[in-house]
TrEMBL record:
Residues 16-304 form the FAD/NAD(P)-binding domain. InterPro entries: FAD-oxidoreductase/Apoptosis, FAD/NAD-bd_sf, FAD/NAD-binding_dom. PANTHER family: APOPTOSIS-INDUCING FACTOR 1, RIESKE DOMAIN-CONTAINING PROTEIN-RELATED. Keywords: FAD, Flavoprotein, Oxidoreductase. One of its GO terms (cellular component) is cytoplasm. This is FAD-dependent pyridine nucleotide-disulfide oxidoreductase. The keyword Oxidoreductase applies. It comes from the Bacteria. Its cofactor is FAD. Gene3D superfamilies: FAD/NAD(P)-binding domain. GO terms for molecular function: oxidoreductase activity, acting on NAD(P)H. Pfam families: Pyr_redox_2.
Length: 395
């Protein structure tokens, strides 16, 4: 019996991966696809004229120094990525196509949704003059306004709001922050919020606690009205009230809801062949945990890499959630590794929060821990090690 001929190798053409969103998550995915050896076409649809850039420095550096504008770019050089600078307007997941604003229809084998989010706005329809900080253009315009303003109001006392208020105070501009909770209280808890509020006051940042939502007044905007009848006015009013995921272009696909695009730990959506990463996403809950949005820089980077691996059918090289955060408030740097929000008193304290130099940990009921460097120059690797070795609370 003659020997059998060896089977011919199955040759699979490299798949086209389409990334929608020239964001940190989108560019991280493109870069990681190439790192993992993908040789097929990679197409990236991005709506920003400036291309991809890092957003955290917008409030930390760009508001202070025009030279910082040139340090933000996230280069795609050498990656052989076809970039289309036109917003995605519709997606057809059955046909596996995305249509752009300039009429192009782009096909794909696998899709990564990375369109991020836009600033939440409070202005009434056709009310002019509301300022937000989400894009490079926003930051440049706000920097000009800061140079002219004699007073400012910031709505929102989260990370972004307190960073913008700090930029105002650093320029000697009297600034008032308005929120229903004390500065960073919803994120960092009572213990650190009290210290940060006191430090901000000493730095020249006034805080007004409202009983409900503030309303922008004037056209163009010139102040805010609070539920108790108080009215505040200023030369500059900046809304820092969170973000809204950019999902309009996904209408009819079943991919998105009010929280954004739901993903699992592999960054897979509920639609085959479609993955998502970054600020547009939320981690779908299960019986033990709720849905969770975590629109932070570290997560966008981790999810971009995870989505790239999942597209290629490979296991991720690390977790898709990276709970690392940092901020600068009233001249003080705060770095955090671990789950937020922080509840109750810290488990351990080294140094003094009152003196502006402390290393703290919080132990959570699930056995995880959070480490905080408050005013200390602590490498993030050291904070990760501390968070990993801190034990659960004693019974």
């Amino acid at each position: 019996m003659p020997g059998r001929r060896p089977a011919s190798p199955v040759v699979t053409a490299p798949r086209t991966v389409l990334i929608v969103g020239e964001s940190l998550a989108g560019t991280a995915a493109a870069r990681h696809l190439r790192t993992l050896g993908h040789t097929g076409p990679v197409v990236l649809i991005g709506a920003e004229d400036h291309g991809a850039y890092s957003r955290p420095p917008l409030s930390k550096a760009v508001l202070k120094d025009p030279a910082a504008d040139q340090t933000l770019g996230l280069a795609l050089d050498g990656l052989d990525v076809d970039v289309i600078r036109s917003a995605a307007v519709t997606a057809e997941t059955r046909r596996r196509t995305v249509t752009t604003a300039d009429g192009r229809q782009v096909g794909y084998d696998a899709l990564i949704v990375a369109t991020g989010a836009e600033a939440r706005r409070l202005a009434a329809p056709r009310q002019r003059g509301e300022r937000v900080l989400r894009t490079l253009d926003d930051a440049r315009l706000l920097r000009v306004r800061l140079a002219e303003a004699g007073s400012a109001i910031v709505i929102g006392a989260g990370f972004l709001g307190m960073e913008v208020a700090s930029a105002c105070a650093a320029r000697g501009i009297p600034v008032t922050v308005v929120d229903t909770d004390r500065p960073l209280e919803r994120i960092l808890g009572d213990h650190l919020s009290a210290a940060i509020t006191a430090r901000a006051a000493a730095y020249g940042i006034r805080f007004v606690q409202a009983t409900g939502f503030a309303t922008l007044t004037g056209d163009p905007v010139s102040g805010v009205a609070l539920p108790d009848g108080t009215e505040l006015t200023a030369d500059l009013v900046v809304t820092c009230a969170g973000e809204v995921p950019c999902i309009d272009w996904l209408a009819g696909t079943g991919l998105a809801d009010r929280l954004g695009v739901g993903i699992d730990h592999a960054c897979a959506t509920t639609v085959p062949g479609v993955f998502a990463a970054g600020d547009v996403t939320y981690l779908r809950g299960d019986g033990t945990r709720p849905d969770r949005r975590a629109p932070f820089w570290s997560n966008a980077l981790a999810q971009g890499r995870t989505a790239a691996a999942s597209v290629l059918g490979l296991p991720p090289s690390g977790p898709s959630q990276d709970d690392y955060f940092w901020t600068e408030v009233a001249g003080l740097t705060v770095k955090i590794v671990g789950r937020l929000p922080l509840i109750g008193e810290p488990t351990t304290v080294q140094g003094s929060v009152a003196d502006g130099r402390a290393l703290l940990t919080w132990s959570h009921a699930d056995g995880t821990s959070t480490a905080v460097a408050y005013g200390l120059r602590k490498p993030v690797t050291a904070l990760r090690a501390l968070a990993a070795t801190s034990g659960p609370p004693s019974q």
